[in-house]
Write a structure and sequence with these properties.
The protein is about 60% helix and about 20% strand. It is built from 3 helices and 3 strands, in the order βαββαα. The chain has a 3-stranded mixed beta sheet. A hairpin with a 2-residue loop joins strand 2 and strand 3. The longest helix has 29 residues. The protein starts with a strand and ends with a helix. The mean pLDDT is about 90.
Length: about 90
């Protein structure tokens, strides 16, 4: 769970960076409302990796649906149609 700190704590950058490194996830608030999250480099990389995996899985599921419904085209047929269309 994120540690919450007020935006004024950003003034002391060295202390704030130390907090982010220790806690990995820090929520910054202004007037009691969250305005941003600061993540450690490791947490950010993990988040990016998870997003990439989710996108890949989504695309794989879409491809499976296209194959099942017969909407998929064989690469050789696709390549031949492109060559014919553009005279390649």
């Amino acid at each position: 769970m994120a540690v919450c700190v007020p935006v004024r704590d950003l003034k002391n950058t060295a202390e704030f960076v130390g907090l982010v490194e220790r806690e990995s996830d820090v929520a910054v608030t202004k007037n009691g409302y969250g305005i941003m999250h600061c993540l450690s480099e490791q947490e950010y990389r993990l988040l990016q990796e998870e997003r990439a995996k989710a996108r890949l899985l989504s695309r794989m599921m879409l491809a499976e649906e296209e194959l099942a419904s017969g909407q998929a085209v064989d690469f050789d047929d696709f390549s031949a149609s492109i060559r014919a269309e553009y005279g390649l």
